[in-house]
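A.,

Following up on our hallway conversation. Structure tokens first:
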């Protein structure tokens, strides 16, 4: 069993981006600029956005954090988004989800300029990705593809089972892995909570992508020997005896599945760090498209 070390790989990508930014600024060009919009004080969102800002600083990006009050109206948020759309110095921005319940997330995502949609959530980017056209790819699926490529994991002709059909991870990764490319050409089955006899499918799989959001759902008896396991899940599980009061668990029962796997991502330290690295990469791509 070998670990697919997302943190180590993400650090390598950041170093590559940092070097490229240094080359750009050394000849008088401005650095790439990424902004994040955060509405309210959700703890997980604050932590995530904070790590994005820190990563921007490290690679030499300019970063802007627009932190709005919980009671910001939908109209006010849309006005801020229009300003970001019109800002010529801004290469990409994200609107951190979830948004407060009084704001329609779909309306907000549709208002984002697709050429600055570095999260890759806008229908224009999703559609272009599905058609194998130039597009921003959602950061988490992008990170999974990058991991598979950098570890030179054979995907061509393999059976990949994706468990989870979200628009952020499950659906896009199922599309990407079926496309032509270094980490593509797989035969993909997209499974979900209504799939009958899921175990029969996972036992056939050469590659399993778990994106269900149920801690330790995938057990050893659901996996064949030598399978590649990608765990996207990240859930806080309460543990009274732990100093933090919780532990982070993935969708895979790591300790029992790992001995059967050829490659497996840990949680934490697997797919998570790759997501931020690929957000930076998308921002750089957006910058270079305008150059």
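Then the amino acids I'd put at each of the 291 positions:
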């Amino acid at each position: 069993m070998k670990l697919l070390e997302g943190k180590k790989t993400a650090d390598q990508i950041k170093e590559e981006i940092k070097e490229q930014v240094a080359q750009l600024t050394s000849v008088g060009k401005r650095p790439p600029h990424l902004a994040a919009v955060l509405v309210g004080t959700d703890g997980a969102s604050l932590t995530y956005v904070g790590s994005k800002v820190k990563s921007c600083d490290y690679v030499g990006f300019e970063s802007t954090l627009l932190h709005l009050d919980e009671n910001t109206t939908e109209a006010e948020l849309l006005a801020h988004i229009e300003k970001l759309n019109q800002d010529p110095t801004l290469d990409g921005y994200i609107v951190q989800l979830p948004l407060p319940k009084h704001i329609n997330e779909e309306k907000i995502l549709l208002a984002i300029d697709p050429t600055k949609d570095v999260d890759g959530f806008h229908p224009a980017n999703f559609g272009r990705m599905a058609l194998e056209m130039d597009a921003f790819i959602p950061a988490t699926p992008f990170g999974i593809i990058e991991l598979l490529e950098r570890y030179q994991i054979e995907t061509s002709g393999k059976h990949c089972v994706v468990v989870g059909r979200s628009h952020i991870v499950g659906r896009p990764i199922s599309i990407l892995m079926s496309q032509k490319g270094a980490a593509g050409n797989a035969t993909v089955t997209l499974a979900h909570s209504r799939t009958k006899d899921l175990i029969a499918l996972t036992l056939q799989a050469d590659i399993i992508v778990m994106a269900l959001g149920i801690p330790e759902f995938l057990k050893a008896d659901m996996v064949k020997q030598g399978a590649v396991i990608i765990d996207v899940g990240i859930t806080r599980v309460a543990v009274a005896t732990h100093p933090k009061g919780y532990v982070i668990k993935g969708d895979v029962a790591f300790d029992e599945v790992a001995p059967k796997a050829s490659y497996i991502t840990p949680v934490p330290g697997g797919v998570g760090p790759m997501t931020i690295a690929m957000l930076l990469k998308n921002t750089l791509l957006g910058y270079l498209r305008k150059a």
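The two ends are 43 Å apart (CA to CA). Curious whether your intuition agrees with the design.

B.
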